[in-house]
Amino acid sequence: MEVQSSNDGQGIVGINIVPLVDIILVVLIIFMVAAPLVMNPKIDITLPSSSAKDIPKDAKPMKVTLGKAGELFVNNKAATLSDLLEESKKRAATNPDTGVILIADKGATLEMITELVDSIKSGGLKKVAFSIQKK
Question: Is the pLDDT of residue 47 over 60?
Answer without folding.
Answer: no
